[in-house]
Amino acid sequence: MRCPYCTYEDSRVLDSRTGEDGAVVRRRRECPKCHRRFTTYERAVEVKLMVVKKDGRREPFDAAKIVEGMAKACEKRPIAREQLEAAVGEIERMLRDELRDEVTATEIGQVVMRKLREMDEVAYVRFASVYKEFGDAESFLREIEGLAKGEADQEVNPGPAPEEAVTTQQ
């Protein structure tokens, strides 16, 4: 590490400590040339996950938007906000574990629907009614009947399983 005072190319580490729950390493250093001490902070660079929208636009992944969308579907349902945040955390980890820099909004929506279905069927139907853009009452009823039978309507915007949803290549 270059000395910020004399710009000498090397320095000696005197002390290293982790901070911020292990996300940062603080190093106390000394320059062998000018003998001045300075502190550096080391942090892993997280790759920005980009979402490809239906119209082709790209925007950074925003977990808060997913939490809010799920919260709307869960209004007046017995689901704590902490449960939603934990579910979104799982979704984000799953997407980042794929080591892709882009994911489609459709893939995210499919994974969110599956999570909601596991959590609360009413919340799932609410979310699906907006996400799947049902064209008429009949297709909406088919989805509800499929839910009652334990199966989703495969004719209305079918999607891959969660593992497939995040591994589909663009």
Could you name the key traits of this structure?
single chain, 170 residues, alpha+beta, 2 domains, three-stranded antiparallel sheet, three-stranded mixed sheet, 6 helices, disordered C terminus
Care to give the gist of this entry?
The protein is 43% helix and 18% strand. With 170 residues, it is an alpha+beta fold.
Tally the structural domains.
Answer: 2
How many helical stretches?
6
Average pLDDT level: 85
Order of strands across the widest beta sheet?
A: 1-2-3
Uncertain spans: 153-170
Q: Secondary-structure element sequence?
A: EEEEEHHEHHHH
Shape: elongated
For the secondary structure, the number of strands is 6
Distance between termini?
Answer: 40 Å
Structural category is alpha+beta
Q: What can you tell me about this protein's structure?
A:
With 170 residues, this protein is of the alpha+beta class. It folds into 2 domains: 12-43, no CATH class; 50-167, no CATH class. The protein has 6 helices and 6 strands, in the order E-E-E-E-E-H-H-E-H-H-H-H. It has helices at 63-73, 81-97, 105-119, 121-131, 137-149, 162-167, and strands spanning 12-19, 24-30, 37-43, 50-52, 58-60, 102-104. The strands form 2 sheets. A 3-stranded antiparallel sheet has the order 1-2-3, with no helix packed on it. A hairpin with a 4-residue loop joins strand 1 (12-19) and strand 2 (24-30). Helix 1 (63-73) crosses helix 4 (121-131). It is elongated, with a radius of gyration of 24 Å. It starts with 11 loop residues before the first strand and ends with a helix.
